[in-house]
Design brief:
With 486 residues, this protein is mostly helical. It has 20 helices and two strands.
Length: 486
Amino acid sequence: MGRIHFNGSLVVKLLGISLFIESAALALASLVSLYYKESDLKPLLLSTCITAAGGLLMYLTGKSSQRNSIGKREGFVFVSSVWVVFTIFGMLPFMLSGYIPNVTNAFFETMAGFTTTGSTILTDIEVLPHGLLFWRSLMQWMGGLGIILLSLAIMPLLNLGNFQLFTAESPGPTYDKLHPRLTSTARILWVLYIILTLSETLALKFAGMSLFDSACHALTTMSSGGFSTKNASIAHWNSPLIEGIILVFMFLASCNFPMLYWLFTGKLSKIRHNEEFGLYAFTIAIIALMLASGLYAAQTYEMGHSIRIGLFQIVSFITTTGYTTTTEYVHWSPYLWSLLMIVMMIGGMAGSTAGGIKVARMHVALKHARNEMKRAIHPTAIIPIRYNGKPLGNHIVLNIMGFLIIYFVLILASALFLMSLGLHFEEAIGNVISALGDVGPGFGRYASHYAALPDAAKWLQSFLMLVGRLEIFTVLLLIYPAFWRD
């Protein structure tokens, strides 16, 4: 069995085309810097030019590609590569401005941006000029629905093998098409994404934030990212109204976007039997109640404040947004901060901007376990798994079970590695779950930032952020020998 012909030129060409999008985003951040007349204008403009030049060079290098259709292998390589390439060029403003001169830290910060993880090595976010603060937020917004989905929405040149690209990047296990043409589906989703982002911006401005802070937080809420312009995150404003607005939009961003489209267009019949949504809302309500009750029982806060803290933190962590209204959770009892770890692993709904395992996968796994117990009693019975009223194919169930096995193996192996570097157990397991689930906040010494994290740990967590954002298989398949054979 020989090796296949891999069309590397086509991958390089597509990477070059995609970099034009990043250069346009950097140009937009440059305009923000120009408006505020701050010192980051030159680094941002230089980064824009370097990124555009890099994109042009890649495009010209790959222009000679003889084949115009992208295959499965090229698709997986391109999807994995584009996130790394975007990170490499995206970290230039931080390095050229001198605010994050270290390569490891700049890569970590930028990967946390594009993957919407929200982890940071910055000890003082508020010293950053407006252009860089906006770039941090814009990175997350671009990564929220996905770089490939953005490319498919605005650049027909990527209409080559777009279903391969779409499935390799989409937050599974399902992502419904809203239109027979995938590019049209991408545009519909991005229009909805933009409308929700603008709506939150206006709501936060009305609630008392400045227009700049409103825009930045809307960008990082709708992407389930969590980067803030303030050191204290959302606690900076100490406003129940602001927290309530952000809570609502965090929840919306973590819902299945095709479902939101049917909801807003009044086609309720298409979402009436959505099992995942009901289970997701129920899970949030129950665990938020458990956390609030625990906080009140421990006399940490009075009842009203316990409910406020408990609901916000559970929604923030289960949606993998990662905003905080308190860092005191590191001092809570193991029972209480374990609830946060659990919801970080669960994550939001499939087809949303949230990370984590996804509620649909957890639900199917539970149904599979229930069926296996039934088969133990009735060995000859044929018991299909039905989801949303439709039977699931066996290959989908096996894919989900394989995903879960690899997910937990990665958590255990990575946590052991971090402990070997000197991290305490709760820090190691919490950091790994946070990185793999694209959540952001850590535990112990890393609740506020990751500045003191060893460099080896930063590279591992950067890798886990990418693996988690691309749903494991897309990245790990590249190191699987059979993937490269006929």
